[in-house]
Every structure is written in C-alpha cells, then in structure tokens.
Design brief:
- The protein contains six helices and five strands; from the N terminus they run ααααββββαβα.
- It is of the alpha+beta class.
- The protein has helices spanning 4-14, 21-32, 39-49, 55-67, 109-121, 138-147, and strands spanning 71-75, 81-85, 93-97, 103-106, 132-135.
- The strands form two sheets. It has a three-stranded mixed β-sheet, with no helix packed on it.
- The chain folds into two domains: 1-87, Winged helix-like DNA-binding domain superfamily/Winged helix DNA-binding domain (Arc Repressor Mutant, subunit A), CATH 1.10.10; 90-150, 2-Layer Sandwich (Dna Ligase, domain 1).
- β3 and β4 form a beta hairpin.
C-alpha cells in the first residue's frame, strides 16, 4: 500500500504541480495531528515548525491534500470548516458536544450497513455520507453536576 507522502507526490506530479519542502512539512504536520483541524489551527502548528510558511501556503496546500484524497472537509454545525484524515481512516461518524465543542469519532459497522441497506432499498446511489450527533459529553455532564453540588 502506498504511503500518504507517495500519494501526495504522485498527485502533484500528475497535476503538473511542483513539490516543495514547505508542502511536505504541512502534510507531515497535518498527518501528525490526530484531531479535526481548522486552517488556522494547522497554520499555528506549522508556524511553530517553520515560521516562514504563510497562511496562504497552508490554504493552498490543504486544498491539494484534500484533492489528493488524503483529507476530507468536515463541519460540525458551527459554520467552521475543519479537515480530518481520510487516507487509511474508515468512514465514521461524529458525536459533538454542544457545551465544549469536543468531537468523538465513532465507527459502527451496524450503522454503515444500515445506511447502505437504506440506499439500496430506495435504489439510491450514495456519493457521500455523514452523521453528526449533538449532545453533551461526559466531562461537561460531570462539570455541570459538580456546579449543582451533586
């Protein structure tokens, strides 16, 4: 199986785009972050490693990483676009805390099968899917309980 870096380099080559150390640094930092990052969050991480890389470069590179199939854009109902890893990460859903904004990735083969079965039942071709469940995480519930004195 190809590595993410090889896929990235092949995508650049096939699309007549230049390889650069800056682009690879951005890719490495994105792949090393196991969370859903906004462009600004990624930019902050990149600047710690290489202060010469600008925000526009991070934007353009994330577009390439997304188009290469290594990332996917996700939204959690707050109007903020984030990116998550796509390569070697199975389809999954998200539990989103409405208090702290925390996100928990969940994978359920049963839900995956149900979605495919529903599409098949209605002769519907799935091109993408996402399920976001909103609620309150255990940490926020615990904090609320402590504030109430229980």
């Amino acid at each position: 199986m190809k590595s993410a870096k090889n896929i990235f380099r092949e995508y650049l080559r096939k699309n007549g785009m230049l390889y650069s150390k800056q682009r690879e640094q951005i890719l490495d930092i994105f792949l090393g972050a196991e969370k859903h990052l906004t462009i600004n969050e990624l930019y902050d991480l990149v600047r710690k490693k290489n202060p010469q890389i600008g925000l526009a470069t991070v934007h353009r590179t994330m577009r390439v990483i997304d188009n290469a199939g290594l990332a996917r854009k996700v939204g959690f109902g707050d109007g903020i676009k984030r990116f998550e890893h796509k390569y070697r990460h199975p389809e999954h859903d998200h539990l989103i805390c409405t208090e702290c904004g925390g996100v928990i990735e969940v994978f359920s083969p049963e839900i995956e099968k149900l979605q495919k079965d529903l599409a098949k039942k209605h002769d519907f071709t799935l091109v993408s899917r996402k399920m976001r469940l909103f609620g309150i995480c255990k940490n926020c519930k615990r904090k609320a309980k402590q504030r109430r004195g229980h």
